[in-house]
Amino acid sequence: MSELTRERVLEALRPVQDPELHRSLVDLGMIKEVTIEGASVRVQVELTTPACPLRERIREDVERAVRALPGVQTVEVGFSSRVRAAGTGLPDRQPIPGVKNTIAVASGKGGVGKSTVAVNLAVALAQEGATVGLLDADVYGPSIPLMLGAEEQPGLVDNKIIPGRAYGIAVMSVGYILDPEKALIWRGPLVSQLIRQFLSDVQWGDLDYLVIDLPPGTGDVQLTLVQTIPLSGAIIVTTPQDVALADAIKGLQMFREVKTPVLGIVENMSYFVCPHCGHVAEIFGSGGGERVANKYGVPLLGQIPIDPAVREGGDRGVPVVVGQPGSSTAQAFREAARQAAARLSVEAMKKPRKPMMMLQPKR
Question: pTM, whole model, 2 decimals?
Answer without folding.
Answer: 0.91
